[in-house]
Amino acid sequence: MPLKNNKSKFFTITNISEKEGEIKVYGEITKWAWKEYGETNALIFNEELKQLKDVEKIKLRINSPGGSVFEAQTMYNSLKQFAKDNEITIEAFIEGVAASAATFLALAGDTVKMGEGCLFMIHNPSTYSSGMSDDLRKAADLLDKVKETILDIYLKKSSLTREELSQKMDDETWFSAKEALEAGFIDSIETFEDVQNNITSILDCKCLETYKNLERITNLAPTINAIENQSTGGGRKVMPKNLQELKNMHKNLMDEHEQEVLKNAAGSDYIKNLIQDAVNQERERIKALSGVKTFNKKQEDAVNKAMFEEPRDSKDLIVEFYNSDAYKANEEIDNIEKDKEKNGINNIAEVPPVDDKNLDEDIVNAALSSFNEK
Length: 374
Hints:
Layout lengths: L10 E5 L4 E7 L5 E3 L4 E2 H9 L7 E8 L4 H18 L2 E11 L1 H6 L4 E5 L3 E4 L10 H25 L4 H10 L1 E3 L1 H6 L5 E3 L4 H7 L14 H4 L10 E2 L5 E2 L4 H7 L1 H16 L2 H22 L6 H13 L4 H29 L16 H15 L1
Parallel strand pairs: 2-5, 5-6, 6-7, 6-8, 7-10
Antiparallel strand pairs: 1-2, 3-4, 8-9, 11-12
Helix pairs in contact: 1-2, 9-10, 11-12
């Protein structure tokens, strides 16, 4: 008997009338629906989509910070193909935030409507990668290709050029409803009742933590006055203008959230691998230092200090020892030369070399001379 699964999906697909279906994508677009069964959400999405029978229109409602690019692309293509095969019109509504992968999913609609105070964000795809340099280059090349496929989708709707869109992705650009309309991403601006609550409800999504311009949520949405807003003297609720103000207003909650983020990060495979790599490198460094050959107590102390007190690389230490010994050797040579000069050794005349060729003749002549004298 399979285990009962209590995990909630980020989307729902239902018939709201005989001729109309509704799809809600509310939350982070994740890869796994049920990890126990190894099924992806895009697969389940496609299966449930086929259950919409005899509908002529689908209302696609989105409030999502984004998530998995590949899952969102699969959902986008499934929607477009399903609508084409069944002559269905798709009407998309951005009812809070459409960020990252959620933006091109929204563009699956034949028409796209965005609420006042809602947000639309595009940026470059990102990933986690580890391994050798070739592995990292392959990951970077893949990200570049993914970006191009996203640009292809944006260009079908937006009035911006490919170069302009690419730059805005580089900058991580957050659009207000008016700015999204001017850029051609949406067709009209509507008034939705739950925009404030919708945006508030997704601010805890983990994928938001990787965005570099997260404060634009508050700057581009002045109508949002949720998230435990403070009250002024007149009882009017105000929204923090930036992330720092939000931290100041709710320090305890933000500290608690930060600790939760750090805790979750510490338990991730990516962080564990980084820590293990650092440990292995430190072990190799200490091992290399322990193999450095020393010739005196001072060098031994330097090695021990480099191991634990002031970490240094073994190669740097060896070079230092070499330079130090070479300096001492040169100093000894200089001292010897000075002693020679002082003792007059350098002034001793050289003995002329013996002429080996005439040596025997000189000996014979000396002997004959001595004999004649007798």
